Every structure is written in C-alpha cells, then in structure tokens.
Fold this protein.
Amino acid sequence: MLKHIIKNLCSRRNTISICPEDITAEHELLKSLEELRDDIDAIYGRSLRIRQVDAGSCNACEWECTALSNPIYDIQRFGIDFVASPRHADMLLVTGPVSRQMELALKKTYDAVPDPKFVVACGDCAFNGGIYSGSYAVTGGVSKVLKVDLVIPGCPPSPLKIVTSLLAFLKQQR
Amino acid sequence: MNDQNYRVLSSETRLNEEYIEVAKEDFRTACVSVLKRHDAFLRLMFCTDERAYTGCFRIYAVFSDSRINRFIVINSAVKDNLAYPSITPDIPAAHWYEREIKDMFGLVPEGHPSPQRLVFHESFPEGSFPLRKDWSISEDDLKQWSEGMVVKEPYKFMRVEGEGIFEIPVGPVHAGIIEPGHFRFSAIGETIFYLDSRFFYTHKGIEKQFEKLSFGTGVYLSERVSGTSSFSHSSAYCMAFERMCGIELPDRAAAIRTLVTEMERLYNHIGDIGNMCAGSGLTLGYAKGALIKERLMQLNERVTGSRYLRGVNTLGGVESDILQKSDDIRSTLAHVVKDYRDFMDLILHSLSHIERMETTGYVAKDIAAALGITGLAARASGIDDDMRKCHPHLLYETLGFESNVLTKGDDYARMLARAADADRSILMINELLDMHFSKDLIAGSYSVPSMQYALGYSESPRGSLFYWVKSDHEGSVFRVKLRSPSYCNWSAMPFAVNGDIVPDFPLTNKSFNLSYSGCDM
C-alpha cells in the first residue's frame, strides 16, 4: 500500500495534458465565454444556475450538457453551473419531446424553481418533438407544457452551440 | 429430437433464423425445451397483430446460444381467448417481455408471478393497447394520461416492513444530469435491503412511430432511440432490413460499419470508466476520462459530421466514406491511446477507488444467466456473451474476434471488462484502417418483399441489441421490434445493490451505465 502511495506521489500522473487542438478550440470558446461572463455578472450577480430536466430525451442532449463541465469547456469557471436542486436554479433547461409520463414531473420541477426564471428548450425534440412528433406518447415539445424563453436547435446541439446560444439570449435580456 | 414433447406445426429456416411454429398450449413446453437442450439465452420476445391477415396475434420468443450461430424462434398464434401460458416461471428472463406484451397488445400471460403494468403508469387508460393495428385513443384520455392525476390502474411497489426499515424514494428527476427513472430503496441503516425501480418515464412510443414512417426514415429514428448507442442501433436496424430484402452489404460498407461500431464503443467505455471515478470521488480520474472522451467525440464529428456518429448508416450501406479520413483517425487515436494508458495507470494505482469497487455491486453468474443479462455486465459475471463472437456479423469473423470473460461480477470486474473491450476496439480500429476494400458504399437496387421479416443485431457498447422488422403487403413497415441491452440489464440492478450501502448505488449504476431511453422505447 505504502509503496503504491509513494509511487503515485512521485509520478507526474496527477496532471492533465491538453493537446494543441484543444487549445485552439479553447481559444474560440474563451472569447465567447468571456463575453458571457460579463452578461452573467450584470444579470445574475456573477452566477447562472441551471437545472437540467430530461423530459424523454434520447440522452444525447444530456451528454452534451455534461460535456460543458469537462476540462475543455469547463463552464464553471465562468459562473455557470448545473445544480442538483431546482430550488437553486435560475434557469430550467429541458431536453426531449416531453413524454406524457414525464409531463407531471417536469411541471413539478418548474414549480419548484423560484421566480424569476427562464425556460430553455434544448434540442430539436424539445423544440417541436423532432422525429417523435405525432407519437401518442409525447406532447411534442416543451412549449406545449411551459412557456419557453429560448430554443437551442440541434440534434443534439453541440456544447459550443449551447454556450453561444445562452450568450446571445442573455445579451437580449440585458 | 427424441425427447421432443411438443408438436411442430410448421418450421422455416432463413439465413441463421429457424422459425418453429407450435400451438399456443405447447408454447411454454417448446420454449423450455429449446432453452434446456441448447443451453441457450432468451434473446427477445415480442408480439405482432396479424388479425387483419390471419385473425390472430402471434407471439415470438427468440433463443440463441453462444456456440452455434443460429437463432431459434418459437412462435404461436393467439386468438379467441387472449391468454397464453407464461414462460416466466421457467425462464425468468421473460418477466418484462410478457408484461410489455400485455401493456401493448392486451395478451395475458397466464401464470406470470407479477403481471402488473410495465410500460404504462397509473393514469394510462385501461383496456387500451397501442400496438394493436386498430388502436385509437381519445383526446380526454391523452390529457388525463399527460396530467398524471387520475389513477386508472394502481401500481404496487414492493414494500419491506419491519423494525428500523425505511424507504428512500429517488427520482424520476435526479440530482445530476441523467435520465429519469424512479428508485425506491428499502434500507436498514445504510444497508440496502431491497431496491424496487420504475422506468418508462421516457416512453416515446418508438415502435408505433416506426410503423408510421418509411423504412428509410426509420434509420433516422433508430439513431435517436439511445443517444450514446446511435450507431449500434442504426446498424442493427439496417441489418434487419437488409436481411429481410436479401441485400448483400458491400465489403467497404461492412468495414465502415465495423470501424464506426468500435469507435462508438471506445468513446463510451473511456467515458464510462471516467464516470465510475465520479462515483467514488476520484475527481482527477473523472476529469481525465471526460477529456479523452471529448477528444474522441471531436474526432467523431470531424470524420462523420456528428459527435454521436449519426447520419453514417443508410439502408443497404453507408452514406460517407470514412475510410478516406483514416489519417485523422490514426493520428488522433495514437494521441488518445497514450493518454488512455496514463489514465488507466492512474486508476489501477488508486487503491481507494479500487477498494471501493471490489465486491461492490456483485451479480452472481447464475442470477445473470437466469435474468438474461447481456454485454459486458454478463462478461464480467462469467457469461461468454458477445454478439461479435457468438453471431459474427460485419467483419468480426475476418478480424478473428475473441471475447474477454471475467468472473468476479462486481463493479471492478465491469470496469476491467470495459477496459479490455476498449483495448480490443483500439486494436480492431487500427487493423481495419490497414485493410483494403472495394469502392462500393451502397448495395445496388433492391425491392422490399411483401410480408417478409428478419432479425438484425449488433453488439452495442452496453451489450447485445436486436431489431426485428416485418414488411406488409405493400412493402411498408408492418412491425419493428427493438430490444436494447439496457432492457435486460436493468433487472440485474436490484440484485447488484442488495446488501451494499446506499452511497454505493451511484457507483454500481455507473458500472452498468444503462440507458433509460433505450429501455423505455
């Protein structure tokens, strides 16, 4: 055990390497995120807290939201974070075509978010049901259930797309 | 065949599928005898509504074993009294299928130990069966179902009673960014005594939706059943269609499908090994896993135009020639592999992480076998189940694929099974990039036969994946049945967490990393 601990401490394994491509991608991102930070500062007093709700998504949109927290995008450093409780949220980010069996849970989550709050429909399904539109088991988009403030199209929208859409939206709110 | 105690009404063999029709009364006997004689797994079970043509419903049970590349499909007509003998008492793996058939078609499995609703929740109307061809639903019923306030058929959770036992209900909306499902722990102190779970919150009526679309548009839908297995889903769907039409896949298309299937597996497994670190609090491991996964996702986007490998498959072949971008794949992979080795080194030297995983989430081999667990969860519990080996398709035979079986059955074994799978994917990707293929990407012209059917399958990152398609008289979609690996593997979760402490649940859950959307259909 001790041998392993010493080996671990002596090795340089506790570092994360970033390759050149990551840095280029990050450069573009940084520029837009710096701007975003100013907007978040002005509107929310330095933080934007998002509660994500999966309302029947195929899970691709969720993974793109999760990717926003990876070392390449790392949105937490700009004051944006996904929170565990709707009580802590300023924004509800909904994915999926709103399956009928999730509608009640979605409404309850919305009610639990304190005012003022924004609702974002993230992805084509959340916009209008996407390929599931017309199915008996879905309501066909977030707007059928809640008032939507912003739509982020894409199947799924990439992490960069999600961030830039939020930026444009927050600018309008200013 | 001497010990056969059921009468075969008709039999038909196409490719590696052997359809055996028996009378409804013999259904259970026939299934049990096939299972026992061949030491086989129940792969899937489904139903079709043929009342317009033959005046009956038909139930199918598909079996196969790991030694012979053959599927045995027992089927029976069900008419008049809409009940059939349940096979669940003998074959526990059938327990969800029979409940699903009851919800979707209204056929009653006689003798099922717990025949309550599976797919539909309390407020779905009684006596309404969406996959029947003549089904319709009123606006009022839809509204009530959506609102979820009226209980039309109550659902009973398993209740554990006794001194000091309490229930912890979790979900459907969870703390993290994950899919919705409801878990109910009965705990004594920190120890889980029983876990009951409820799914199908994300039920989207996918199988009915397939019937509304053309076969071609179905590819698009199949890619959106379960996000992180988009490619495996569309491959299995396309394969079922191609086998139904007798289409021979050009070798370049087969190579690209094999390549992309392995690319999908690689990004999933590395991401999942990283996510398991989040389950035990090894933040650096989680960050490294997410970083490597992101690089692979960016590679996916560069070579296929989609981070989730969508838009590659098409009926009869593939849309784009990914092999032309082999340089990018090769160089990115070389870079990724270096980091991946470092990452694994970090994990395998993090003793607290490993100790947390060892003996946690244990699934015994006999339980895994009885429940029909599939994929790496099965391979971690000592069951040699890998569609790439048992039923070689695409180029897996050429590549000489061998599966990797572990025996411990705990979270650690599942992580090691993932790592072994990822290693093999890296080798196969490199091997495929060095091979040479003809130019064709899509098979020549074909026509859709009427009233024909076939099975398609693939080994997705989570396990075996099946599609069964059938055409109608006009060559349109009559029925599409899909069975995702998560549908089988969710059953293992209550067994895996039994006796563990509640905080181990997220870790065990991540070690399986099952899809809710794929399961809920």
User: Anything to note?
Assistant: Residues 22-173 of chain A form a domain with the Rossmann fold fold (CATH 3.40.50.12280). Residues 20-44 of chain A form the longest helix (25 residues). Chain A touches chain B through 62 residues (CB under 8 Å). Chain A is about 40% helix and 15% strand.
